[in-house]
Specification:
Blueprint (H helix, E strand, L loop, with lengths): L4 H6 L7 E5 L5 H7 L4 E6 L2 H10 L4 E5 L12 E7 L8 H14 E12 L3 H6 L10 H10 L3 E7 L3 E7 L3
Keywords: Methyltransferase, S-adenosyl-L-methionine, Transferase
Organism: Actinoallomurus oryzae
GO molecular function: methyltransferase activity
Length: 170
């Protein structure tokens, strides 16, 4: 993650001072993000994971239990929103699109949405047997992010992942 995922996905992106991470799960990326930004909020749909993160993470990280397709935050709350390998766990493309629209809503004008997700290869499908797996199509991701109100969209397909950035228009 430190040597591959974050340098490639985040690059020289300025996340600002108030970042939201969607779907932190066990908190691997959350721990790394917390050391990079002044204030981090993580929104986790699974209450068990949210409670675990509250116990394990530093006091400066705010953990909120909630659904990323209906975020419990005011408009223009965050300088950046990040998500890493969680979009495929959103149960339908329509809910993924609501997540994108909610991301645009909670971003401040000029704020950035950055992330990555796995590609639907055989191994990826096998490790998700019995789990939600709704892969994001890199070929349609840019238009979906734009339809949600985001601009300056960049989608970079890789063999096993897709990376993306987008901004809320100023």
């Amino acid at each position: 993650m430190r040597t591959d995922l974050f340098p490639v996905v985040l690059g020289d992106v300025d996340l600002g001072d108030d970042v939201l991470e969607l779907g932190p799960g066990l908190g691997v990326t959350t721990r790394e993000l917390a050391g990079r930004v002044p204030h981090l909020t993580a929104l986790e749909v699974d209450e068990t994971y949210a409670e675990r993160l509250r116990r394990e993470l530093e006091p400066g990280v705010t953990i909120v239990h909630g659904d990323a397709s209906a975020m419990p935050f005011p408009d223009a709350s965050f300088t950046a929103v990040a998500c890493f390998t969680m979009l495929h766990h959103v149960s339908t493309p329509e809910l993924q699109d609501r997540l994108f629209a909610e991301t645009c809503r909670v971003l401040r004008p000029g704020g950035v949405f950055v992330g990555s997700d796995g590609r639907a290869g055989l191994l990826f499908r096998l490790i998700h047997l019995g789990d939600t797996l709704v892969p994001v199509d890199p070929g349609t991701l840019a238009s979906r992010l734009e339809a949600a109100g985001l601009a300056d969209v960049r989608v970079t397909p890789k063999p096993k992942r897709v990376h993306f950035t987008a901004r809320r228009p100023a």
